[in-house]
């Protein structure tokens, strides 16, 4: 069967014709692929730059792809019926020593015993069909099939907000009306992750800023407008102005220089939290002692936030369905390109480089 | 201005022409009514049977109505602009001695210092226009205006599930995939409350039974079918069968005889919880010592669940928007009748008695 | 080696000379017994009245005893050294399917896969020496050896209060100074459990009543006096007076008639919780519908509370050490009798019946 | 009446004879001083180096002292009786706009509306007698009068651990036996704060290292030995060795150079947390991007931890009472010097400089 494969840690990507079907865990559900999404990590692997990426044991290649929607073709599990749409969870643990893994939360694995589909030690989902474990399959309502592929990247953000709100439950962080409406959040970075994060924080009731080093593109501006986000170009206007405003929640999705982190800390209000989501790829943060003094005085928190699991995929699908009703224009702008799997040249091109204005590119198998 | 008024504790309901505008709290937002919903409590007041109902201080009459959508006409609060749709929160606290009230949660008031619009010491919203406090106004997305009136009754259930999940966080109650998909819930009663509760529990990932003393009506059957609920007629099939199945979560919305409660306790699985939502109106529960022995052994909980606040209204609107996308047939069936406020006879009739098959009746002002 | 054995479900108790050493789980620590405590459940087993009691698989007898302190004689586990004092945890799970069991909390076992030392499917600790699993051994500071045996019964109460406080975290239940000092609790029953529960609630900052059907004995009165507890004879003074006072927390430890439970519910204040700890042994609770109405209105909770685990044993030892400093008179009154294991007649007598004024009887092996 | 006063932000300290009694809040309890403790912040004020220190409005002087034990002389509050020992809470909020302040937790004040006795805008407790608000008075058991003064500094640490454990409740952080016994913690700094922190973490079940730039003094070594702490001289042995060991919890109490913070981050294990308690007084942390990558991957947290409130004072007194029983040698070593208030020269000297080996110095008024 047809598949898109890579050879980490070596760069490159190619189409291949697999002889043996891919089978994960119990493998009791046969899934035929309908769609894949492409994300920045796929491209890092293709470029040979994702240090943690590796094939499954005993192989020198890996099926790429961790964003996928498929249709059930066969199933020996009563919970899944042929014809149902499903989405696979990408980080998994089949070992079972870490307590968090045992309770279905390998996002908090302490034993490094997990694998990640299409990335770390487990084949991914850019493949015609494969056999999956029902434990890691999420049902997708056909009514939102057009945007459902976004549930994978969104799941990471659902988990992140769940985690941050859990951390903030150590004091009263809701407002005098019980909501988060008095809380101000800012998301650094306006890529797919930044945009989805901002929409999600807005859904949770926050006042939301989205910050970047440039003015918004047309699509970004329209999304911000419909969803009520404030776009902030911090090379034009100063970071100092942000410090004066003050933020209860700061999210970094830039994956750029670590030097930004100092400023993200300094704009925190008392009891505020900074969530680091994007992996900084260069530079260093130089943080003077008096910044730490204020950090302590203000009871601030910095937390590393990663990886959503099955409950977060389900929540992501709920939110996408909600957005489809209340922000119809926004949801139409989130998928910026659709490529057929048969257009192999275009697929390889998309896996190599991001186009300007891209939010989410998806590949269709049918 | 035109209003529907009652004289609790006396029975009766009538249209009236108010001389003075109604003003709540800061009163900085003028709201023109678009819709009201009618619920069972309204009818209890009309029948003079809601013991806790009373007019505001110094009056012998009360504007009825706690389910409402309006449009902002004037506003001196920057958060609300003319033309926006709003929904008022019905239970409020203007005193501020109880700690839960001070943090915006009069649903957990310990000082009985709250008032309830259209019911207890505060005028309701069946009135042409009135002035409201922005703290208690919830924005309604115009895209879901058709079903948004359901957010008021749904808010109580959002709060209930939030409370139950908080109670259950004292141990691991999520499944081995981190979701609630392995948990079985049953809702007793298939009225508006029972139906909405079942839909909400399904949304949270539970396997959901809905139980009543009769077979489902056609509309109920279709809702159950589209949303994947199991309808159970417990006069036809035995309560004993439910005991064998076992439930992790049991919700009572019947408001019928207290005698049912013993059975609801007995069908609980270990770590299971019974939420009492409907006020039983007659009878008594006779619970033998050995039922309590098993209750203790199984670490069971019974909890009284009431009243949603502003965060729960917001969550209810989110869920309604989601349902509109994924269960379009269900959402169309939830509003079973629309009456014009100008059809005064029909309004009075609807306030006096429930029609067969009714889920939600709404009154339109425009 | 010498052991005290029973033959559940048959009544009776006897001394026996075991040929084979008892070994639990990994069995890497050899423990020589120093002390056992006797509790009501031991006597229920001796009387053949504890329905759930059974020998381990393949045997028709069971070593009795779930309260014990021993000294390490040999150990292949680096965490335990010869000469250290240890206390075994009594409820255990060696199966590992239930998620709560997997994370060390078989007190919340949903799969009924646990065993209980000296009671249910596992030999107990009234034995000269045995081999234990380090996972289930708790270190005992020698400085509080005199009262440490109380840590086993106290562990159940530590768990109970932890659970109740977790349930109450769903709203603000602390006072305006952040403490529990404004909260009023009442414990029904003044046996060992009731007394320890009252002392523990006082330690947590509650105002504490202890209620019984009689006046306090001299020892009870002195404990109440030193620790600042209010003793309440509810046959002399009315239950109605308690209703007027109102309680935020009600604990039942009586194990008497279920009929008391209705009254315990009625004395709850808004947001109050009733913890059922004692297994009622007769009667029934007859609860009219209007009692449930108020229960719901007041957002009350009833919860079944059982079994402490290793963290609760550790906490119990901490609290006993604290009490030894601040309530030296109280701690001296808690051990009401010490019997030598060599006085076999006296041991058998103590295992058959409770003496008046008894709080805790312990058996010494050295 | 006699008092020790300062003139912040100017340096210096002196004895004074106040004409008017000091009165806080309701002032319904007259407290005669028995003891004061001296801490590093007192000396910072005396040296004119605590930037945030200021007198109450309308004055240019401030009574020093935030660690105190007094005896009730008069009281119009039924909760406090003459002859009882009390300890005042030092951070307070009399304004009441911030929600956390309203519920008795000005340690999480967001509005900077609090005052701090003897430091920020409120007279302290180095005064013969004064009138206090019962809300901020904590009862002290006379049985632990000798060490109770430590409850003030310890209260900050109780709050810190409570906060950290709350943050860590977002996943399973307890071990497979439900305890924290498998978790490794390290405290940087071995002054009064570091020592108390280490003892408290040990009490909570952690394996505890205490790290400093030198070998332990004799007293420190004996405390570490009795309480089972591991002392680590990180100038002798490398920080790298700590990185290999890995820590679940790192606490900084040094108040030294911010450069240490980078290393404290690097030694964190997955899911580990760094609590910053000591205000760094110089330098900067230079943190490269790859350190942040691992921080994110490991789901680490950095949190600023400050200030205990009334519940933490009560918990601190409980733990001191416990330690007095189980670590009698340790508790005797914690008070390293006692000075009479009549020895004014010695008092002034102690307020100016710390002696080698000092843990806690206290001043006696009787």
Automatic annotation (TrEMBL), chains A, B, C, D:
Substrate binds at residues 41, 90, 116, 152, 156, 307. Residues 146-362 form the Glucose dehydrogenase C-terminal domain. It comes from the Archaea. NADP(+) binds at residues 212-214, 277-279, 354. Residues 25-141 form the Alcohol dehydrogenase-like N-terminal domain. Its cofactor is Zn(2+). Keywords: Carbohydrate metabolism, Metal-binding, NAD, NADP, Nucleotide-binding, Oxidoreductase, Zinc. InterPro entries: ADH-like_N, Glc_1-DH_arc, Glu_dehyd_C, GroES-like_sf, NAD(P)-bd_dom_sf, Zn_alcohol_dh. PANTHER family: L-THREONINE 3-DEHYDROGENASE. This is Glucose 1-dehydrogenase. It comes from Vulcanisaeta souniana JCM 11219.
């Amino acid at each position: 069967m047809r598949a898109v494969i890579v050879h980490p840690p070596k760069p490159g990507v190619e189409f291949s014709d697999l002889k043996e079907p891919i089978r994960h865990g119990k493998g009791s559900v046969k899934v035929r692929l309908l769609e894949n999404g492409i994300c920045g990590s796929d491209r890092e692997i293709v470029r040979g730059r994702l240090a943690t990426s590796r094939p499954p044991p005993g192989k020198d290649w890996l099926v790429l792809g961790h964003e996928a929607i498929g249709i059930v073709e066969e199933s020996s599990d009563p919970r899944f019926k042929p014809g149902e749409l499903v989405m696979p969870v990408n980080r998994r643990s089949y070992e079972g020593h870490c307590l968090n893994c045992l309770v279905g939360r390998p996002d908090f694995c302490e034993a490094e015993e997990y694998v990640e589909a299409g990335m770390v030690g487990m084949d991914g989902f850019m493949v015609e069909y494969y056999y999956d474990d029902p434990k890691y399959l999420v049902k997708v309502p056909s009514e939102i099939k057009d945007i459902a592929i976004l549930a994978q990247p969104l799941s990471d953000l659902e988990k992140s907000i769940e985690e941050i709100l859990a951390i903030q439950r150590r004091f009263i962080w809701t407002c005098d009306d019980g909501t988060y409406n008095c809380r101000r959040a800012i998301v650094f970075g306006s890529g797919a992750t930044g945009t989805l994060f901002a929409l999600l924080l807005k859904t949770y009731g926050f006042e939301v800023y989205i910050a970047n080093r440039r003015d918004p593109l047309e699509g970004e501006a329209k999304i911000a407008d419909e969803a009520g986000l404030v776009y902030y170009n911090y090379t034009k206007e100063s970071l100092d102005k942000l410090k004066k405003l003050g933020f209860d929640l700061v999210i970094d999705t830039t994956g750029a220089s670590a030097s930004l982190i100092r400023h993200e800390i300094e704009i925190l209000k008392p009891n505020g939290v900074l969530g680091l989501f994007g992996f900084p790829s260069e530079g260093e943060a130089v943080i003077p002692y008096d910044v730490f003094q204020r950090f302590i005085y203000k009871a601030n928190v910095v937390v590393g936030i990663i990886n959503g699991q099955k409950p977060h995929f389900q929540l992501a699908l709920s939110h996408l369905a909600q957005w489809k009703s209340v922000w119809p224009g926004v949801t139409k702008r989130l998928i910026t390109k659709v490529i057929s799997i048969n257009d192999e040249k275009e697929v390889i091109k998309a896996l190599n480089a991001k186009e300007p204005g891209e939010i989410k590119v998806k590949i269709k198998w049918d």
